[in-house]
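Supplementary Note 2. Why include the ligand at all?

Several targets in our set were suspected to adopt different conformations when bound, so apo predictions alone were not considered sufficient. For every target with a known small-molecule partner we therefore ran a joint prediction. The input for nicotinamide-adenine-dinucleotide is given below.
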Amino acid sequence: MTGDRIAIVGAASGMGAAIFARLRAGGAAVVGLDLADARWPDDAPVTRFAVDVADHGSVRAAIDAATANLGGLDVVINCAGTLGPVEPTLAAAPETIQRILAVNLGGAFAVTQAALAHLLPTGYGRIVHIASIAGKEGNPEMAAYSASKAGVIGMVKAVGKEYADSGVTINAIAPAAIDTPLLAGLSDEQRAERAAIIPMGRMGTVGEVAALVEYVVSREASFTTGFVYDLSGGRASY
Ligand SMILES: NC(=O)c1ccc[n+]([C@@H]2O[C@H](COP(=O)([O-])OP(=O)(O)OC[C@H]3O[C@@H](n4cnc5c(N)ncnc54)[C@H](O)[C@@H]3O)[C@@H](O)[C@H]2O)c1
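The joint prediction is reproduced in token form.
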């Protein structure tokens, strides 16, 4: 980890902020990318770049700028995502569905392409996307979100095989509910429901996410690509 040059997309909040802090403490050179109006943690002296992952050009420009700032690129971690409303599928507006797909799935494609453009020529790299247990099992009243995360899982499996002999690995993490600002819009009842379906009986923490991601982007994690790591307190059944 020491000396690795890392760009974290969606670094201002939740999992991205925790991963940022852990990897920097481990000796990596880390820059953060997030929306121009993102609220960053007060105590984080983060080198920042504005990006909207729903805009491919914006992603390419931000990853290019991050790479120039770092003097190269070894690792890209994509934590940008949106939950969208929890509502019956019949009531979901087409614009809402499109926005969730554009950010979560379109964003994952944009980040992957921008990262590959820099990593493939070097013969080494690690790309990690935060998918979701929703993409494996489907969460009711979160059909677009679940579909977007299933799409991320499919993309990671395909791209992993495609570039398996390149030295660049691409993997996903599939967390169950993790206590972050993403869940701020849920009612207490909805939060309790999400914790109750986790066999460990609790939500995960951003620290647990960061610890797993640190391993997946390490140089030791060299024989795993196109894989989806479970982080679900026992909820995942495959
Ligand atoms: N919290 C959970 O329970 C949970 C569970 C499974 C998966 N996830 C996924 O984990 C990832 C991280 O979520 P989190 O819980 O840390 O949420 P969070 O809301 O704390 O952080 C998400 C970050 O993404 C950024 N972002 C949103 N839209 C963006 C865009 N268009 N362009 C660039 N950045 C954008 C936000 O500004 C924010 O900083 C997301 O992909 C989320 O879907 C979360």
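The longest strand covers residues 168-175. The chain has one domain: 5-231. Comparable summaries for the other entries are listed in the accompanying table.
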